[in-house]
Design a protein that fits this description.
Layout: H1 4-12, E1 21-25, H2 28-31, H3 41-51, E2 55-58, H4 60-63, E3 75-79, E4 81-82, E5 94-95, H5 99-104, E6 109-116, H6 121-138, E7 142-148, H7 159-171, E8 176-179, H8 188-194, E9 199-202, H9 211-220, E10 225-227, H10 230-233, H11 238-250, H12 252-257
Length: 268
């Protein structure tokens, strides 16, 4: 019974209760600049909730500005990492929040960003481990956003490298992991097969192709969800796009034909 709080929170992260997830990261306001004008924030959030997003990812200060009723059918993930495009090392991430703060905000989960292969990888890994320990103390789910990014990464879409990255997240205590996609997309099944925790595919198709086909391919490869931010909030019709992506993630027929991941002893 000690982890009942985590069980409740994990359930709230999947609105349909099917263990699949459509997350919309909105933490770009720290890394890149404003997502929308301040007057448009409530409208954007209502659009995401009404469209069927399972959770939004916000920094702690932004979360304090949101009226609770807006997130009536959508979970809140508080992002604890930060870095900006103006930094000397854009791959560096530092902790700017604590799990206890997220608990006080009523968050359903926290997230931490790690760039494997960056010059500050060692510090980011230490931060992930420390946050995981705090999450255990507070029964808080942890989403690791972990990517092969940096001067030592030859191919960020290599399934072998991605399998290594997602297993780092699992080994250091994450409950969910968001990462880049393998190319071609069907090789994401190898990454899924290597990992004992649910994988959410990040972003959109690298070649700018159709987002719905992209999401469908990844769900069929065994991913348990999608985490898409910019391609949604910058879309001409975000409400329609969110609704279509939610259907892809939670579709009953997709669930019947999903690649079923197994845990292997080695990285694919």
């Amino acid at each position: 019974m000690a982890d009942i709080g985590k069980s409740f929170r994990m359930r709230r992260l999947s609105v349909a209760g099917d263990g699949r997830y459509l997350f919309v990261p909105l933490d770009h306001s720290v890394s890149d600049g404003p997502v929308v004008p301040q007057a448009g924030w409530d409208e954007l959030l209502r659009t995401l909730v009404d469209g069927g997003a399972d959770a939004v990812v916000l920094h702690k200060g932004r979360a304090r500005t949101i009226a609770p009723e807006i997130l009536r059918r959508c979970a809140l993930i508080v992002h604890l990492s930060a870095g900006t495009v103006h930094a000397q090392d854009t791959g560096a991430k530092v902790l700017v929040g604590e799990v206890e703060e997220a608990v006080r905000l009523g968050a359903d989960a926290v997230s931490v960003h790690v760039n494997i292969g960056s010059d500050t990888e060692h510090r980011q890994l230490a931060d992930l481990g420390a946050v995981a320990a705090s999450c255990d103390a507070w029964n808080m789910p942890l989403l690791a956003m972990i990517y092969p990014r940096g001067p030592r990464i030859a191919d960020p879409h290599d399934p072998v490298v991605l399998a290594h990255a997602v297993n780092i997240a699992a080994d250091l205590g994450a409950d969910l992991v968001k990462t880049s996609v393998a190319l071609p997309l069907d090789r994401m099944a190898e990454v899924v097969d290597s990992c004992p925790i649910p994988i959410l595919a990040a972003g959109g198709p690298p070649d700018g192709s159709d987002l719905i086909s992209y999401g469908t391919s990844l769900m069929l490869a065994g991913c348990r969800g999608l985490a898409i931010g910019r391609r949604i909030f910058s879309a001409p019709a975000p409400a329609s796009l969110v609704s279509r992506l939610a259907a892809v993630v939670h579709a009953t027929e997709a669930g019947a034909t999903h690649h079923q991941p197994t845990i292997s002893t080695g990285a694919a």
